[in-house]
């Protein structure tokens, strides 16, 4: 939330600069090099969302209603059984909780191409969703490290920020695999791409900086802001 505050008040023009500054101020190098900034990729993603909102005069995006069509995962050979047969996908809505669960291969078509190390899964009859959504991937293999809520990896996103019905996330963009202690399983080429389909016309969200999106930010960031301790400094430029 501090990083959002820094962007909202114009202390930094980009989410990247705000995150870098916050991390540098929180990390005490005299006590070690353990980074103390915002590390979770989903949290960083939402700071980037807020930068986009601010650049559009605080107009919130339309909460586009979508359904999931397919998922591609690269770098699967070192993850569990290596072919995705031990994976389960859970889809959760910030407002409704769990809305879908699928064990790959049951209620979906799973194809693994060993030559390119790519898993391709297509889905049918996935309930529609909109707004803030979390995809959680669980793995039954004991060799796969389990993180938050005993998941192999997960990520949050907002349907209003999905471009061209696709969302591709590299290893550094995925919660849990971004940690270097998991890299013996999640190799450098590990990435996930989701393909969506809009199911009806977009419904405009209230044109305000408050609402569901702001509630989601509050849930993701629990650090309280003390304006007296925040000093303005020169923007360093950069691109989100």
UniProtKB/TrEMBL annotation:
<dbReference type="InterPro" id="IPR051281">
    <property type="entry name" value="Dual-spec_lipid-protein_phosph"/>
</dbReference>
<dbReference type="GO" id="GO:0016314">
    <property type="term" value="F:phosphatidylinositol-3,4,5-trisphosphate 3-phosphatase activity"/>
</dbReference>
<dbReference type="InterPro" id="IPR014020">
    <property type="entry name" value="Tensin_C2-dom"/>
</dbReference>
<dbReference type="InterPro" id="IPR029021">
    <property type="entry name" value="Prot-tyrosine_phosphatase-like"/>
</dbReference>
<dbReference type="Pfam" id="PF10409">
    <property type="entry name" value="PTEN_C2"/>
</dbReference>
<protein>
    <submittedName>
        <fullName>Phosphatidylinositol 3,4,5-trisphosphate 3-phosphatase TPTE2</fullName>
    </submittedName>
</protein>
<dbReference type="InterPro" id="IPR035892">
    <property type="entry name" value="C2_domain_sf"/>
</dbReference>
<feature type="domain" description="C2 tensin-type">
    <location>
        <begin position="63"/>
        <end position="199"/>
    </location>
</feature>
<dbReference type="GO" id="GO:0005829">
    <property type="term" value="C:cytosol"/>
</dbReference>
């Amino acid at each position: 939330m501090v990083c959002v505050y820094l962007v909202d008040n114009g202390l930094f023009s980009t989410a990247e600069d705000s995150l870098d500054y916050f991390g540098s101020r929180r990390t005490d190098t005299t006590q070690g090099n353990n980074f103390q900034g915002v590390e979770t990729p989903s949290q960083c993603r939402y700071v980037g969302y807020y930068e986009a909102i601010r650049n559009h005069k605080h107009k919130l995006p339309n909460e586009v209603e979508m359904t999931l069509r397919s998922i591609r995962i690269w770098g699967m050979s070192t993850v569990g059984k290596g072919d995705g047969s031990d994976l389960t996908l859970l889809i959760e809505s910030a407002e409704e909780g769990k809305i879908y669960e699928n064990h790959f291969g049951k209620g979906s078509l799973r194809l693994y191409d060993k030559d390119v190390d790519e898993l391709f899964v297509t889905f049918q009859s996935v309930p529609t969703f909109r707004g803030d959504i979390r995809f959680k991937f669980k793995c039954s293999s004991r060799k796969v490290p389990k993180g938050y809520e005993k998941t192999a990896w997960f990520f949050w996103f907002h349907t209003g920020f999905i471009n061209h019905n696709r969302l591709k996330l590299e290893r550094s963009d995925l919660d849990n695999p971004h940690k270097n202690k998991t890299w013996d399983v999640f190799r450098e080429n590990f990435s996930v791409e989701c393909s969506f389909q809009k199911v009806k016309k977009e419904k405009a969200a209230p044109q305000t900086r408050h609402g569901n999106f702001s509630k989601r930010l509050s849930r993701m960031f629990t650090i309280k802001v003390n304006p007296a301790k925040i000093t303005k400094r020169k923007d360093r430029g950069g691109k989100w």
